[in-house]
Amino acid sequence: MKPAKGKDQVFSRHLAGKTASEHLSQFNELLADLMGSSEGKPEVLDDTTVVEISHANFPALISASLLGEFGAEVIKVEPPEGDPAREASPYGVNIKGIGIPFLMESRNKQHITLDLKTEKGIENLKKLISQADVVIDGMNPGFLDSLGVGYRHCIKLKSDLVYLAVSPYGHFTSKSKAFSNIPDTDLTAQSESGYPSLTGNPEAPEPYNYPVKAGVWAASYMAAGLAVSGALTALLYKRRTGVGQMVDIASYDAISAWQCYSIIWGVHFKKPRVRVGNFDWSIFPYGYYEAKDGYVTIAAGSDQDFRGLLKILNRWDLENDWRFVFDRITDDVDKLKALEAEFKKELAKYTRKQLVQKTLAFNKKAVKDKLRGQGFPIAVETLSPREVLNEEHWKIRKSFTEVEVGGATIKMPSSVPKLSDTPLRLKKIEAGLGMHNKLVYEKFGLEE
Amino acid sequence: MNQDYFTYTDKLFSQSELSEKPEALKGIRVLDFAHIIYGSVISKWLALFGAEVIKIEEPYEGDFWRTASYWAKYWKDSSPFFQCLHPNKHFVGIDLKTEKGKELVLDIAKKSDVIVENYRAGLMEAWGIGYTTVSKINPKIIYISCSGYGQWGPLRFFPSWDLIAQSMSGVAQLTGFGDKQTYKLPDYYGDFLPGIFGAMGVLGALNQREKTGKGQFIDVTQVEVLFRMMHQWSYMDLTGEDLLCTGNVDPSMAPSGIFKTKDEKFISIAIATDDQFVALMKAMDRMDLSGDPRFREAFERLKPENADEICGVVDTWAQSKQESEIIGLAQELGFPAALVMDDFQIVNDEWRKERGSVIDFEDDMYGKGTWPGTAVALEKTPNRIKSMQRPIGYHNHYVLQKVLNFSKEQIRELEKDHIIGYWGNSIGHRPPVYYEMSNDPIINFTEGEEK
Predict the structure, then answer these.
(1) Of A354, B41, B229, B316, which has the fewest CB atoms closer than 10 Å, so is most exposed?
(2) Shortest Cα distance, chain A CAs vs residue B108, angstroms
(3) Residues in chain B closer than 8 A to A219 (CB atoms)
């Protein structure tokens, strides 16, 4: 890790000047010192053992993976035939029978098999749990309970256990009971959270006018982030009081509850939002636009930002009619389309690079304005993942890690966020079915 | 032990006993410089679970998000979209452009456990209230800086929004039907996901501090958190191919998609395992396909040509069924299917209220309202809402007396010198019109006069 070489591009008057530079150079030194290397640094959860029992449940897999990155000893328990999550992968691409999502979320884990259909399997699991600090239950709600290893049984084995239940509808309420048989997937979780209802263009021909799902596992990762935050909150409480507890996450509710907006809209407008294509509900412009040679992303939220953009595009003539943010909102989509058409016309005249450069040049001057009255519109190239990999910045920050898996070396995103004293780490991916049986069985005294 | 599992869990998580349960983060003080969404949701998590959050705003100006409301509609002169990010927080107005204002926040920083900020990278440092300064006066501090690109590297000063981060991470090209119909992830996903990952970092650091007594610095970036959730990096590496928009098909699940039912509803179905596939074929009365070598095993089924084929079969079937029939079959046979819900259905879903992710709450200032909680329920230390938004500076007297032991005279001096300040009369800032601020116990708070 090292700070940028040469002169930084600064877009704030607060960051210019002698005092600011002095402060920043001190900061750079400190960062180089703090964030330089993970070597020899401790791990938050080096005192924590996590047992993950899950079946085709990615929010649970990811949660365990994140706890593993925090330094926990994570033992994933699978049936002899393996967790079918191993086989969910884009177009079936795999390394030795293991798909990409499963590999990606096997960070630092140990994989063992236990046959929970047998008495011995259950006894072994009990033995394991009695030595664990966290149990992740990613099975159908009530399933482990029916085997005699649910939360109420586990706390008899380990009184201060944190029991993290990860399921579509959660482990309590009547709906959870009625739907306990429904498995998790990202797409169905997005749907129950209302997420696809917000994306798409109802005027396109069928089926392109349907609600559109997010093209990433938006629900699974949101659920995992929330689940791990819940588990760490419970672990902190346990450290302070000695008291463990059950933590329950409903992955089908993750986006709708945390992103707030659906709930607020439903309460205050008494009706759902409709899909508005490339528009945002509160700001314009805030979307993707076609330049001469590809797409650019434009964000100009405030009135000043909007005016700045008009100046950049030489369209001050539009200013009078569209001056206020209230003029530019989507309660009247047809009206806004007229403005968008003007923008599209102008933006198509330039290449992506030209638009980015024009905007940056404008902003560099504008930030000298004391009242920030010139605005700060932003234009960036709408990058594809492949283009992202060319960016020097991410190389300097080591945002990607090359990991050895089954003889091959593949690229994976590094651990986030970055903690100075207890950095999260991606230490290994060893995801072969049962490949840690010997090690774990011995360590925890399980019967072969 | 013979009690039904759900009867048992219902009791564990019962909402009726919520106020008698302890708070996990009680006693943790958070100094919050966050604004708009990204940093604000970190302090929101901490506040929901009992931390004392002190939100610092510039007098009169305040958080830009106070005035941001969809369709310019306000509720009791406030933006509900700002309200929902700021439950249980304390609102203090301090002018950070003055030396005295900086001293004041450093004094509070000395007595705080966590600092959250999401200004442009380096800005807090330039102002002299960054980690280099605070860590010297308070080695226990956990300081999280939220930015688009991080605190070091050539892009660090480049501005970011949720949407800009989506573009800089490559997420931008993954949703929709391809080049001419590509969409952003709605509702500021690029703020909310990095926000919860930031909260995760803070909670990790709090756990560490419990062991060592030492704080640390956290660098969380929108773009890198979005990287963390993408399968594209490994996919490109393994195949040499791009993986961009795939419409409503999840390329890791076959069949999968959003389908229209006979009663014109949208329903999603996604099959993750071979067992689920058999269950779906049973539901469709197409057991003949369950043994088909093209579909029987996941890696075969996921091949584009086979996935297309089986998605088409499901599409035709879904069109012949009512939504409720399909959900009923999913419940009975165990395959993933869900109605594509909308905003209004979500709010009126009793399930969410029972879980505490939609919360009815009566606030002293704003009265009855319905607000979002979280999808996470903690049995013994549940999250809860105790208050909603307050105007800028509402807690000035309260915080300065409680935290810094200032006298009323000292506070009046700060007011006179415009070091601390209050709200302006604009919409989004002022209290509700009916509210009698002069009788308010907090705005006129005097230590020792508490009931």
Answers:
(1) B316
(2) 21
(3) none
ipTM: 0.98
Nearest to A212 by CA among B183, B227, B213, B229: B183
Show the tokens assigned to B324.
């409720």
- Rounded CA-CA distance B443/B397 in Å is 7
CA dihedral A89, A94, A97, A103 (to 10 degrees): -70
Assess A169–B contact: CB distance below 8 Å, yes or no: yes
Sequential pLDDT tens for chain A (448 residues)? 444 444 667 778 788 888 888 999 999 999 999 998 899 999 999 999 999 999 999 999 999 999 999 999 999 999 999 999 999 999 999 999 999 999 999 999 999 999 999 999 999 999 999 999 999 999 999 999 999 999 999 999 999 999 999 999 999 999 999 999 999 999 999 999 999 999 999 999 999 999 999 999 999 999 999 999 999 999 999 999 999 999 999 999 999 999 999 999 999 988 899 898 889 888 899 999 999 999 999 999 888 999 999 999 999 999 999 888 878 887 888 889 999 999 999 999 999 999 999 999 999 888 877 766 778 899 999 999 999 999 999 999 999 999 999 888 999 999 999 999 999 999 999 999 999 999 999 999 999 8
Taking an 8 Å cut-off on Cβ atoms, the answer to whether B204 and A419 are in contact is yes
Q: Inspect the interface and report whether the beta carbons of A232 and B203 lie closer than 8 Å.
A: yes
In chain B, whose CA is at the least distance from the CA of A8?
A: B154
Which residue, chain included where needed, has tokens 């998000």? B65
Phi, psi at A177, each rounded to 5°: -65, -45
Judging contacts by C-beta atoms under 8 Å, the chain A residues touching residue B271 are 185
A230 shares contact with chain B (CB less than 8 Å): yes
CB pairs under 8 A between A and B: 644
d(CA A235, CA A242): 9
Sheet holding A286-291, edge to edge: A286-291, A294-299, A378-381
Residue of A nearest to B214 (CA): A421
A411 touches chain B (CB under 8 A): yes
A275 to chain B, closest Cα gap in Å: 10
